[in-house]
Design brief:
With 184 residues, the protein is mainly alpha-helical. Helices cover 66% and strands 5% of the residues. The protein has eight helices and three strands; from the N terminus they run H-E-H-H-E-E-H-H-H-H-H. It is elongated, with a radius of gyration of 20 Å.
């Protein structure tokens, strides 16, 4: 199976929620927390074409007799949904928490309605384990640094990074507990 880019993955997830035009998708990227994705037509439309070529989405022209913008509405296909669910369901790795944290959060965001609740809980359990191990490693580096250098902006920035990961770890613990106790 061909792996899709993060942008293509985001498009599949958004189209699973509802059919949308390229313009609507661009607006989502420009006006929400997903703004780290480019809302440029030079990024979005080629990605939509690739998804269409793979038959993961289909496009329809609206029922209007004359649409001067030639707007097309994109929908996820069954094969696209399978691809989305496969990506959502991947195990969480140490490399993911170090290098792909935004994508992990995107995977988590698209879980509702696509995978069983148990999959989301397992995701958070794995996320806690991998991120917890990474935070311990960073804390060890911090302790070594503290004894070797004086406080300066680089050290304080490193501390900020550790504290950000610790906050993310605490969020994962709370979220897992909430999902585990809430009846479906």
């Amino acid at each position: 199976m061909k792996r899709q880019s993060s942008l293509e993955f985001a498009l599949l997830g958004l189209l699973q929620q509802q059919a949308q035009s390229g313009y609507d998708l661009r607006k989502t990227f420009a006006t929400t927390a997903m703004r780290h994705f480019s809302d440029s037509p030079g990024s979005i439309y080629p990605a939509l074409r690739r998804l269409e070529e793979r038959r993961w989405i289909t496009a329809e022209s609206p029922a209007l007799p004359v649409d001067p913008r030639r707007r097309r509405v994109f929908r996820l296909t069954a094969a696209g949904r399978e691809t989305l669910v496969a990506r959502i369901s991947l195990p969480v790795t140490r490399q993911d928490v170090i290098w792909q944290l935004p994508e992990l959060m995107l995977r988590f965001a698209f879980m509702d309605g696509n995978v069983p609740r148990a999959t989301a809980i397992r995701f958070l359990t794995d996320f806690e384990r991998e991120l917890g191990g990474y935070v311990e490693e960073l804390r060890g580096q911090w302790e070594q640094m503290g004894s070797l250098v004086s406080i300066h902006t680089g050290v304080l920035a490193f501390q900020s990074g550790i504290e950000g990961f610790e906050a993310q770890l605490e969020w994962a613990r709370r979220s897992r507990a909430l999902l585990a106790e809430e009846p479906r």
